[in-house]
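User: I'm putting together a teaching handout on how multi-component assemblies are represented. Below are the sequence lines for each component of a complex, exactly as they appear in our records. Could you produce the 3D structure of the whole assembly as structure tokens, so the students can see both representations side by side? Please keep the chain order the same as the input.
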Amino acid sequence: MLTKTNPVLSDGTRVSDLIYPDTREVQMRVLSDREIYELEMDKIFGKTWLMLGHESEIPNPGDFMVRDMGEDSVIVSRDKSGEVHVLLNVCPHRGMRVTLTDCGNSQIHKCIYHGWAFRANGDFVGAPVEKEKMHGSMLEKAELGLKRARCTLYGGLIFATWNIEGPSFEEFLGDAKWYYDLLFLRSDKGMEVLGPPQRFIVNANWKTAGEQSAADGFHTLTLHRWLGEIGNYSKKGEGEGEGGDLSPEMYGVEVSSPHGHALRCIDLARKIRRITGLDPEKLDVEEKLKALPPAGMTVDMVDQLKNNLSEDQLKVLTSMPPQVGGMFPNILFGFVYIPQPDGTVVGSMTMHTYIPRGPDKLEFCNWIFAEKDAPPELRQKMLEQTIQLFGTSGMVEQDDSDTWPHMTLSAKGAMGRHMTLKYQAVFEKGAPEGWPGPGIVNEGFTKDDTQWHWWLYWNELMNAE
Amino acid sequence: MQTNQEKQDGVEVGAYVPIGSEAYSEIVSFLYEEAMLLDNLRLQEWSERLATDLVYTAPLRQTRLGVDHEKTFIRSVQHFHDNYRSILGRIMRLSGKSAWAEDPPSRTRRMVTNVLVRETSCPNEFAVTSYLMMTRSRFSADDVDVISCERRDIIRREETGEFKLARREALLDQSVLGTPNLAVFL
Ligand code: FES
Ligand SMILES: [Fe+2]
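Assistant: Of course. Below is the structure of the complete assembly, with chains in the same order as your input.
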């Protein structure tokens, strides 16, 4: 019954009927249904650009690491000339995994089953006992290489897609790129990872994490309430509400995109006022950058920003910098300013991917970043702080990873699956006056629009070819 | 037993403290009591057994070929990278009103075995390795998460005679952890 466009599930329901555009609801069946999951593997994970890591994880020729595109294992390798390749980790002979380790360095990847060998760029080298031609003569050697994904680097981040003829990565990011550049292309030398990613399993549908990453600011107030009660945000400025109230943090600008990307840009003036005691109204762009440098940068580094960003971009970076958000379908980024007990600020730069492992399982991958030329003491502080707040043992994200499984369970009940996720809190103001950036822009207290746009793109892809 | 000088995490370790000796029993008691306190959510009392210069880490693990065994331990990004202050911060959070990752709390069972104790170049410090197998039961799931690791500790005898945990490195076995977070201590 599955047709290519506008698919119909085996009980006769159209996938498009699970989304109610007029009332901005999504039927919870999408979080548990195996048929929908299988469709997603082709129509989403087989089509969009996916993040696999950062090139600083494989700095040398021959370095490789094994990552995932949907449920497909891929080898991400750097060849002799330094070029990065993304290759399906499936031996074209009989389907054994070519590489069984998580990473390593090798110019040749040799399958342990019958010994077919491949170069770091995926080319087939040959099978043992050359004169017997054990790969046969029906196919040319050139046709027997590892299946290659289309791959691109953006700020050193490695993205790949199976959609060989599809949109370029820049087209995929669209208007959102202008904002991501503020994070990933801001410095002269760029960022690097501080180590391989943390990895752990959460028994939840990947979309519970995916849609939250499309900038669910609102949950912070309740799920992460401890931050205001006893955590890093418990010290407040005057007249900013009581203890656990994090609502002042919820005002800002939210950017979304027809491709489901989303960014929460949070008001910096409040932070400058509270942390430095200065009046942000009286500071120009340069002074603001020096008063409170972007997360992960030092005062000495902020001059670099002018080399890499436009005046308009600097304006946003010094008034409403993007701090959390996601890229469709399964990426979260956090570039956050964390107040320290001594009144200073230390940034945390982190990215996650949520790899689908079946309708009710995901693998959480967490990378921690620093600017390449940030001073060692800052890098060390960022590393420890980020581990303590985000990822496996992170005091913030512990609570998220315990929430998503329950949504997934809810979506299994005969009643529960027909309940809906609601995105009915709608922005009313639009962009602030004089806002210099592109995209769908809304100002005010965090609302549901960005996540709703995430679902609209999900729906669009699910119903496309 | 081996007596030559070796290093464990940069600390010179010497002779094994014989199993069954008084010092050995005291250290095993310390580890058992610690497991009991943690399993019974007596975090405050557990924290009183931590040295103020505590370093508490849990490396990532990666699957590598046998010849690269040492490279399976990743000590750049880790699962835990904590000190005394940050552990107290975690305890404060867990003891607060809104630590949903552990409220309702997991029912945990920490089995501590294979305890080996060695002397170190500091007469009041012991290098202690132990195996930890923790089962973690959450809500009404009919299976438990299994968290297994080798712990490499430095346990110090204070002047008062009390033991304190000064260093713990938990070498987890899984490269991809089968539990949704480490909101529990290893
Ligand atoms: S399956 Fe790889 S060589 Fe046969
Ligand atoms: Fe969260």
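A couple of points students might notice: Residues 449-463 of chain A form the longest helix (15 residues). The first strand of chain A starts at residue 19 and ends at 20.
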